[in-house]
Amino acid sequence: MLIRNMDSRNPVIFPSSEPSLSVEFFPPKSEKAAEQLLQAASELRALKPDFASITYGAGGSTRSRTLEYARRLQNDLGYNIMPHLTCVGHSRDELKAIIAEFKAAGLNQIMALRGDPPQNAEGFTPHPDGLTYANELVALIKEDYPECAVAVAGYPEKHPQAHDLETDLHNLKRKVDAGASFITTQLFFDNQVYFDFVDRCRAIGIEVPILPGLLTLTSLEQARRFCDMCDARLPEALEQQLADAGDDSAAVEAAGLDWLHAQARELLQNGAPGLHLYLLNRSGIALQLVERLKADGLLT
Ligand SMILES: Cc1cc2nc3c(=O)[nH]c(=O)nc-3n(C[C@H](O)[C@H](O)[C@H](O)COP(=O)(O)OP(=O)(O)OC[C@H]3O[C@@H](n4cnc5c(N)ncnc54)[C@H](O)[C@@H]3O)c2cc1C
């Protein structure tokens, strides 16, 4: 199984043949949340992540905050930042202006997304002068900044709105054909779905690295909520282990960490190009995970 496939088009993101490590932050909405983010980001520097991505809020709600925190994490803490950008609520011209702002801030890679409709809205309605699908956003970025590394989202268990996985994969290929240099996956708890997904991508000619996205989970309720949100399967064994830990939050975290460690180990042993951690602006679990993977000799 060839799942590594480093792409020479993105040396910034994948600087060596070692597995990459990256983390995802979201822009905080309060001062207290900002403190938590900055504290976590400061602690996570010890891991020397290859890059950190920062999400772009639904409906443009955290639009200026994405850029603000991208700048702070880059300039104050030395992170190599990949801001996310969604098409939601923006005209083509607005998107072009935001991309220009990212570039002016020295941000040389962008995660290009369609985005979800604002809460309570029915389905995704593009801006009248905007874009309908993420492949159009990839093309828009590449049009003005061909040197900009662009990442896109992949869904090992199918995008919730896609009719079937085959169609979804062909739509993923459109994003790669438009110039995306790697794919970050939606979270998953069962590695087999990732391995199958990679095989199916390779079979239709998607050759860029496919970075597995893993959640650092802290509660059963949270795991269920995320699985509901993105149509990911929560394996019975994991659900049982979290349920057995009951109300003891330390035991729940330990069970989550054990699962995550086993997942990460198997992924790296089978040639995944790296790990992308959805850590919800918290550092603890990621720090422990990396310590374990270093002890396993899987990360340096
Ligand atoms: C790694 C990752 C990061 C994310 N970050 C954010 C974030 O920062 N902010 C945020 O709001 N959301 C984020 N999301 C969620 C994402 O915005 C939603 O899943 C959204 O519904 C789809 O975005 P997309 O870019 O995958 O869309 P697309 O690739 O455009 O796909 C959307 C749907 O349309 C179909 N489709 C795609 N292209 C075509 C086409 N040309 N013709 C017909 N059908 C097509 C696809 O099969 C799919 O069902 C993230 C998701 C992931 C996996």
Question: What features would you highlight for this structure?
Answer:
alpha/beta, 8 strands, globular, eight-stranded parallel β-barrel, 15% strand, 10 helices, 300 residues, TIM Barrel, binds flavin-adenine dinucleotide
Q: Give the biggest beta sheet.
A: 8 strands, parallel, barrel
Distance between the termini: 24 Å
Beta-strand residue percentage: 5-15%
Here the CATH topology equals TIM Barrel
Bound molecules: flavin-adenine dinucleotide
Q: Count of DSSP helices?
A: 10
Strand order of the largest sheet: 1-2-3-4-5-6-7-8
For this entry, what is the oligomeric state of its chains?
single chain
Briefly, what is this?
With 300 residues, the chain is an alpha/beta fold. 43% of the residues lie in helices and 15% in strands.
Question: If you had to describe this structure to a student in words, what would you say it looks like?
Answer:
- This protein has 300 residues and is of the alpha/beta class.
- The chain has a single domain (20-293), classed as TIM Barrel, CATH 3.20.20.
- The protein has ten helices and eight strands.
- Strands 1-2-3-4-5-6-7-8 form an eight-stranded parallel barrel, surrounded by five helices.
- Strand 4 (109-113), helix 4 and strand 5 form a beta-alpha-beta unit.
- Helix 3 packs across helix 4 (134-144), helix 8 (236-244) packs antiparallel against helix 9 (249-269) and helix 9 (249-269) packs across helix 10 (284-295).
- The protein is globular.
- Residues 1-9 have low confidence and may be disordered.
- Flavin-adenine dinucleotide (FAD) binds at residues 55-56, 58, 84, 86, 111, 113-116, 133-135, 153, 159, 161-162, 167-168, 171, 174-175, 184, 186, 213.
